[in-house]
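so my prof wants the structure for this chain in the tokens format not the other one, which i didnt know existed until like an hour ago. anyway here's the sequence
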Amino acid sequence: MARMVYDRYLLDDENLVTISNADTDYLTDTVPASFINPPIKMRFLNTGDLNFEELCLSAVNDDENKISQEDVISMVRGELLGWRLVGAEFSRSGGFSAYYANENPFQTPTQKGKYSYIAAEGISFFFIEYNCLEVELEVDYADGLPARRYIGQVTHDDKTGVNTTIIEFLGKRKIRKIEFSEYESGDERIPGHLCYITEY
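here's what i got, hopefully its the right format
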């Protein structure tokens, strides 16, 4: 097995790693494929000092929350009818975010008379557990290729701040590991945020 280790400075340090079911730039972007492709599957492997329900309820902004607490739990479990996980991201400053969009988005006419899905109704979650948060994400392909799977772990250390490790799998094979810490930013000479990458 070949193994390569290298460093990269990623420029969008607030959205270092974005995972979507439709190859979008940001977790909150929605396009027609967001509602055609299978939703992202997610399960928590470790929720630290919080139980699953506490983690879910603390992760959604009360101002944005238009659904009941029971529905919040069902949504994160992927069981709430009409809602699907279309985007997730890991940021340098801590935590893990997930975006759920409604399968029946608001369609707005564009200049050419076509319809856009950009105005899809959605709810954002920001999951943070300083003790340890570990999540598994699975993204299926419509063309029958093996799913991509990601295991992300977010921890906190007094010296380095928030530390994130993401391991990417293609089927059962590990293909990439990405590691970064909250305070490892570049400078004027090398802008961006430092990430350590291992490819297998």
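also thought this was worth mentioning. The first strand starts at residue 4 and ends at 10.
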